[in-house]
Amino acid sequence: MLNDPVALHVSDDLELLVEQFANSGPVKHVVIDNFLDATYANTLYEDLPDLDGMPKSRDYVFSDKRELSTLDKRSDISRQLHEVFMSREFADFASRLAGQQIFMDPEYVGGGFHAGGAGSFLDLHVDFNIHPKHDDWLRKLNVLLYLNPGWEQTWGGDLLLTDDPGHPTLAVAPKFNRLVIMECTDQSFHGYRTINFPIGRSRRSIAAYGYVKIEAGSVPRHTTNWAPEEAGPLKRALAKNWSAIVLTKNRFFGSGTLKNRR
Fold it and tell me: Does pLDDT of 51 surpass 50?
């Protein structure tokens, strides 16, 4: 389905993947192992930006991680993956999963390279729904490519999925060359708990996001809605009011700092 040598063909498994996505829970998702050609996946991993050279995220008390959104501009190697994500073939595949016409954000707003070192965490949250630069783009899919060779379960850092922060979570290990495509709704809570691994290791992923066109203003806008599993009264109050705080800030100062994490 996707152009060699960058990505593994999934056309033979398309119907199975569509069925798995439709019947999955608590958040609709599908896991595709060995997504990229093995040689290219290793080359991409070796080309990842250095952790210390990536800016810290602006999720403040809700996360500890780094990010760099320039997937298509970093190198010729990462540009090949960009071309896959932006291809008609990938859009058609994503559209089959979602059951509606999906297109990918070419600017990776909130996406691109994500990384977390020792102690990194990302509280449970629901992502912003309307694109910061396009009032008629509604976010529908998160596309998460994990690049963590030799990942050990005891380190933590699994992607956690739940439709309610009070319910149990489903854990997906961020294994090397694993692609996770998950539905984005107001109930698609996700995040990861504090990682405990040796200094020098990092949790690596590349995120891209799929959208559908809507009539501008037809869906109320919200930013990231946080639901930390463990928090004191102040942090819980901040999480409850975070979207309103950020929307107010954006109204007066613009949305240049609006981010989203995975």
Answer: yes
User: Which one-letter amino acid corresponds to residue 20?
Assistant: Q
Rounded to whole angstroms, the Cα distance separating 169 from 178 reads 19
CB 141 within 8 A of CB 97: yes
Domain boundaries, the chain: 11-250
Report which DSSP code applies to 180: E
Angle at 168 between CA 162 and CA 171, to 5 degrees: 65
CATH architecture of 11-250: Sandwich (2.60)
Give yes or no for residue 250 having a pLDDT over 70: no
Alpha-carbon span 59 to 252, nearest angstrom: 19
User: In this structure, are residues 43 and 77 in contact, taking their beta carbons and an 8 Å threshold?
Assistant: yes
Radius of gyration from C-alpha coordinates of the chain: 17
**Out of 14-23, 130-139, 186-195, 231-240, least confident range:** 231-240
Q: Which residue has the tokens 């707003």?
A: 109
What's this model's pTM, rounded to 2 decimal places? 0.90
Contact between residue 224 and residue 126 where contact means Cβ atoms under 8 Å apart = yes
pLDDT in tens, 164-223: 999 999 999 999 999 999 999 999 999 999 999 888 899 999 999 999 999 999 999 998
